[in-house]
Specification:
Strands 3-6-5-4-7-8 form a 6-stranded mixed β-sheet. Strands 9-12-11-10-13-14 form a 6-stranded mixed β-sheet. The N terminus is likely disordered. α6 links the parallel β10 and β11. With 356 residues, it is of the alpha/beta class. It folds into 2 domains: 182 residues, 3-Layer(aba) Sandwich (Glutaredoxin); 147 residues, 3-Layer(aba) Sandwich (Glutaredoxin).
């Protein structure tokens, strides 16, 4: 018997579906499946098929609730439960422009039977007029499966309007799916909403005085960071580079230090140590203090249910409107890792070429 096994052989109550053994949750200590609470990974290995097929990526769906469905053509559970649920939800939210549906065939076995052409036929057989992608082929493991830690099929992923995965599982019925979608639709929108007035607890490094001949401020980046944080160590130098690169375009970058554990007063904080730590991480810009994480809560954590990372970055335009949130902890990479989504969005705010 192949080392690829069927989940139904392990759990009788579950309908048959393909499961990749090396990603399963077993008592032998395999890692948990899924990426709930994390930024939805990019679809860098997905090819698209069917009429009007074109390159797509998950970031194109920011501002919408996204239902992302991973399947295989020969998976019985996909046909008996997964696709019927997907079709019911797609019909239910057909009039909602802020809900989108995408199906990706994540082939890890039966490569001839689970071909791109067969995947497209299966989706169309359920009368679904949605984008259909393919990830995985013989000799080439699906990066989509790896990045989303799906483990097999059917696997449904629900992504909120900020691009954070809120739900993923082998099983989702229409009732539960609708509850999740309605909840995410009703959430306080962050993108294109005014930035709450920030009341920091002071500054470890003040903002520099603005010369009379300085360009008008067109955008501000706020990056929450803390000490002993490898994600901050990786991201702060990128923020420093952006500050230098776009200073003449009216861009300011503010580091927001949020200590862990939280502090109650400035008397508990050594500001010299914060500045030294910032310098060691390669960031020389102004440093605001959010001792009890209250501003982080008002800006992001209190508005996005399920958000976990605290090292986030917020892009605000000249009018004080939030234009982009990188939910962290690492900055989202694009262009094969050569750039960041944050810089793309910054250039869009500055009305510059976003292809660079």
């Amino acid at each position: 018997m192949s080392q690829r096994v069927c989940l139904a052989m392990l759990v009788v109550a579950l309908a048959a579906c393909g499961v990749a053994q090396d990603d399963m949750v077993l008592s032998s200590g395999h890692a948990e499946l899924g990426v709930v609470g994390q930024r939805a990974p990019t679809w860098h290995d997905v090819t698209w098929h069917g009429a009007g097929a074109r390159g797509r990526d998950v970031a194109e769906y920011r501002g919408k609730v996204l239902v992302l469905y991973a399947f295989q053509s020969w998976c019985p559970g996909c046909h008996s439960r997964g696709f019927p649920t997907l079709a019911a939800l797609e019909k239910r939210y057909a009039a909602h422009d802020d809900v989108a549906f995408v199906a990706v065939q994540t082939t890890f076995e039966g490569f001839a039977a689970n071909s791109p052409e067969r995947g497209l036929d299966v989706v169309e057989s359920f009368e679904l007029a949605i984008p259909v992608g393919q990830s995985g082929a013989e000799g080439k493991r699906s990066a989509f499966m790896r990045d989303y830690r799906t483990g097999g099929t059917p696997w449904t992923i629900l992504i909120d309007k900020t691009g954070v995965v809120r739900f993923n599982d082998f099983f989702l019925d229409e009732k539960l799916g609708a509850r999740w979608i309605d909840r995410m639709l009703a959430e306080d929108p962050i993108i294109d909403a005014p930035l709450p007035e920030l009341a920091f607890d002071g500054w470890a490094r003040e903002r520099a005085s603005v010369p009379d001949d300085a360009p008008p401020k067109r955008a501000t980046l706020y990056r929450w960071w803390t000490r002993a944080c490898p994600f901050c160590e990786a991201s702060l130098p990128i923020l420093e580079t952006l500050a230098e690169k776009y200073a003449d375009a009216g861009v300011e970058v503010v580091g927001v230090f949020h200590p862990k554990p939280r502090l109650e007063s400035l008397a508990q904080l050594d500001r010299d140590e914060v500045r030294a730590n910032s310098n060691a991480l390669g960031f020389s810009g102004p440093i605001a203090l959010d001792l009890d994480h209250s501003e982080l809560q008002r800006v992001y954590l209190g508005r996005v249910e399920g958000a976990q990372a605290t090292s986030i970055t917020v892009l605000v335009d000249a009018a004080g409107v939030i234009r982009h949130v990188d939910p962290g902890p690492l900055l989202e990479r694009v262009d094969g890792g050569e750039g960041t989504r944050l810089e793309q969005e910054l250039r869009r705010v500055l009305e510059l070429d976003t292809s660079r």
